[in-house]
């Protein structure tokens, strides 16, 4: 079963002149009781940050926070002692666990575009931790699903998180196809960055979503050269 959500149905927030953000789930001042999460995927924000601006230090706890940089560069600093830059094609994961704080700034002279995802962890009370990896996903392998971050230990050479979920990226050329095998006990979330794809026969364009339940196979075909994110998630809270 596929639930299609158009780009126009995202919540747009512009709380400051330097930030334009689209919330795919309830976040900050946006509250929709019917759109709180999809499995353990609690937050998906599509953020655009103007040059020489950003988020001052703020706290988090009991959440797995994944940042994917699509364009530009993030300057990150946190209370764990990490001071890093996350560039285009890099993946960052923070386990907020029992509590930490961080800041995120665009110190460059060009805009920053990123996705930030929050996952409900499979275990509470974890010590805060940090991981970052240059996967080069925005311009890397084509016509396949590239794993970026996972809690499923069968996958190697990816960023690890404390969630029974996997985040994939695909650069899919026109007329190419991908099949993703899943199970009725799993959920599949797809969000298109650019291009046009058909997901089990339903067309998705830029910034459209598909939320899928009770499927065995997800079939994806590109009508145009496309980039999209696919997230494999558990459906039962006991399996987060």
Automatic annotation (TrEMBL):
Signal peptide: none annotated. Residues 156-233 form the Quercetin 2,3-dioxygenase C-terminal cupin domain. CDD domains: cupin_Yhhw_N (cd02910). Residues 15-118 form the Pirin N-terminal domain. It holds the Pfam family Pirin. InterPro entries: Pirin (IPR012093), Pirin_N_dom (IPR003829), Quercetinase_C (IPR041602), RmlC-like_jellyroll (IPR014710), RmlC_Cupin_sf (IPR011051). Belongs to the pirin family. This is Pirin family protein. It comes from Hymenobacter jeongseonensis. The lineage of its organism: Bacteria, Pseudomonadati, Bacteroidota, Cytophagia, Cytophagales.
């Amino acid at each position: 079963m596929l639930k299609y959500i158009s780009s126009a149905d995202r919540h747009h927030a512009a709380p400051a002149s330097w930030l334009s953000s689209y919330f795919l789930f309830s976040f900050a001042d946006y509250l929709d009781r019917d759109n709180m999460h999809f499995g353990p995927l609690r937050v998906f924000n599509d953020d655009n940050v103007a040059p020489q601006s950003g988020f001052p230090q703020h706290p988090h706890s009991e959440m797995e926070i994944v940042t994917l940089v699509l364009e530009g560069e993030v300057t990150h600093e946190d209370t764990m002692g990490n001071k890093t830059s996350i560039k285009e094609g890099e993946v960052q994961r923070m386990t907020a666990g029992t509590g930490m704080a961080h800041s995120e700034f665009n110190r460059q002279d060009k805009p920053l575009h990123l996705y930030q995802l929050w996952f409900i962890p499979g275990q509470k009370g974890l010590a805060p931790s940090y991981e970052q990896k240059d996967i080069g996903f925005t311009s890397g392998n084509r016509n396949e699903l590239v794993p970026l971050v996972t809690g499923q230990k069968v996958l190697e050479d990816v960023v690890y998180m404390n969630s029974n979920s996997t985040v994939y990226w695909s650069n899919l050329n026109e007329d190419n196809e991908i099949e993703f095998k899943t199970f009725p006990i799993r959920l599949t979330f797809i969000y298109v960055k650019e291009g046009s794809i058909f997901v089990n026969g339903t067309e998705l364009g830029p910034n459209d979503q598909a939320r899928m339940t009770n499927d065995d196979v997800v079939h994806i075909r590109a009508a145009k050269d496309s980039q999209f994110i696919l997230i494999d998630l558990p459906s039962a809270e006991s399996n987060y």
